[in-house]
Prior knowledge:
It comes from Aquipseudomonas alcaligenes. Belongs to the SufE family. It is a single chain. By secondary structure, the chain is mainly α. It has one domain (about 5-134): Sufe protein. Chain: A, CATH 3.90.1010.10. The chain contains 6 helices and 2 strands. Strands 1-2 form a two-stranded antiparallel sheet.
Amino acid sequence: MSLPAAAHEALDAFAACPGWEQRARLLMQWGERLQALSESERSEANRVHGCESQVWLVAERQDGHWRFRASSDARLIRGLLAVLLARIDGLDAQALAELDLPAWFDQLGLARQLSPSRSNGLNAVLQRMRELAG
Length: 134
């Protein structure tokens, strides 16, 4: 399966980081790229349950593909959401259903740093995306 351009950019950027501190800094920078959600979008209806931090997810369908926007109250989580969104940008529901999330974070060199709670939270975000796209 071919990767979206933003996913290639993420892979290149994270591959250039020699260690976790640089990756963590890069994650924070990617988190700052997230398009801000409005107050009304940061609603209970858009909140993803299963995350320790507060995470909101908004989905819009454009030309047969899903576009997601997300935000969190935690900086590191915003970064993880940004690289997740880079990976799923423009995927159709079928490709979204087949996405291997642990493999993606492993490719980025971030898998070892994902605590079980963060991993569960990101899985909850992906599950919510699949529900919305289904």
